[in-house]
Specification:
single chain; Alpha-Beta Plaits; RNA-binding; rRNA pseudouridine synthase activity
Length: about 375
């Protein structure tokens, strides 16, 4: 009998997959700590440890399922295949709340708004809102999604309602629309701005749409344009809007919202548009026998008249022949009409001495009387 033991052992060994190793910079990016380039700088600065040992090479690979990673001594959870499902939250952040997981000064942070169950999942914020700003803030455990949402490659728009005090002129709006340079020398991309109707006594409300992630960009822009920011609220990030979520509350994103976020940054393929229903094939028209249009459009009165007419051939009508005059009714006292065949006109004698153009000879003219009348015309 053939020996299958070695084959079975080899098959079992091939089915056992090697652990998925990740470069340390990609692992930190997946965890939402920073970008890959910034992770290389952290490694070079000696701020990253793996299993309690400092690493000096940015190309070091780790097993996220077994290795323990720490950043400045704090453990970092690396998402990996087989781990728990990711969590996606949206928060309506109030003012005077830090967009961090801890604060050395003891100020209130976004973790204080989350429920104990949400805090246990170790979510982190995507992007930031400064201490005196409010509105939409996304949080997740999905490091890849967080990295893409904050990467300038994707340019996802963010919408803000900004209440300012000062003279909002057309020239200032055009400066923001065309792009401006901050006092510190940073070049800003053009933004969309639109003034919204509001109570003039409370300042001017401007709707701004940004695609950059420069720190405190709106406040610094308004500062350089001599405008004072009274309030700043983010209402949308990419395809996700704040909707009716109460201030100081957080909720999980729906599966549809998560899918739209991933589609916006290329992590999921966008669904194909629905196919248009195909038109049913038009049935071919049956050939009908030709019919007499004259009989179709004639009224009964006209048809009767046609039936009463003599049956002359079409060629006779076209030749100009008329009905026989003998067939016509005669009036009393009328003589029989002459036949065309018997009627003969006198032929002109071409050799006569008659002058051309119908002139008569002098002898043939009747003589006038002395009274001036023609005797030949008087009877």
């Amino acid at each position: 009998m053939p020996n299958h033991t070695n084959k079975t052992t080899q098959a079992g060994a091939s089915e056992t997959k090697a652990p998925a190793l990740l470069r340390i910079n990609k692992a930190l990016a997946l965890a939402g700590v920073c970008s890959r380039r910034a992770a290389d700088e952290l490694v070079a600065a000696g701020r990253i440890t793996v299993n309690g040992s400092l690493i000096a090479e940015a190309g070091t690979k780790i097993d996220p399922a077994k290795d323990e990673i720490a950043f400045d001594g704090k453990p970092v959870t690396i998402p990996h295949q087989g781990s728990e499902e990711h969590v996606y939250l949206m928060m309506n952040k109030p003012i005077e709340v830090m967009t961090t997981l801890s604060d050395p000064q003891g100020r209130r942070t976004i973790l204080d708004i989350l429920t104990p169950e949400q805090r246990q999942r170790r979510v982190f914020p995507i992007g930031r809102l400064d201490y005196f700003s409010e509105g939409l803030l996304l949080m997740t455990t999905d490091g890849e999604l967080a990295n893409r949402l904050t990467h300038p490659r994707w340019h996802l728009p963010k919408l803000y309602l900004v209440r300012v005090r000062g003279d909002v002129t057309r020239s200032k709006l055009e400066i923001m629309r065309n792009g401006m340079r901050l006092r510190e020398g940073e070049e800003l991309a053009p933004i969309e701005v639109r003034i919204l109707p509001d109570d003039p006594g409370r300042g001017t409300v401007i709707l701004m749409t940004l695609i950059q992630g420069i720190n405190r960009q709106i406040r610094r822009m308004c500062r350089d344009l001599n405008l004072t920011v009274l309030g700043l609220r983010r209402i949308q990030q990419g395809p996700i809007g704040l909707d009716t979520l109460e201030r100081g509350k957080a909720r999980e994103l729906t599966a549809e919202e998560v899918s739209r976020l991933k589609q916006a940054v290329g992590m999921e393929a966008k669904p194909a548009p629905p196919e248009k229903p195909q038109k049913a094939a038009t049935p071919q028209k049956r050939e009908r026998p030709a019919r007499d249009n004259r009989a179709q459009y004639d009224t009964p009165h006209r048809q009767d008249k046609r039936r009463g007419r003599p049956t002359d051939s079409r060629s006779e009508h076209r030749s100009g022949k008329r009905e026989d005059r003998d067939q016509r009714p005669r009036r009393s006292g009328d003589s029989a009409p002459r036949s065309r065949d018997q009627e003969q006109r006198p032929q002109r004698d071409r050799n006569s001495n008659r002058n051309s153009w119908g002139r008569r000879d002098n002898d043939s003219r009747p003589q006038r009387s002395r009274s001036g009348r023609n005797k030949g015309w008087n009877k």
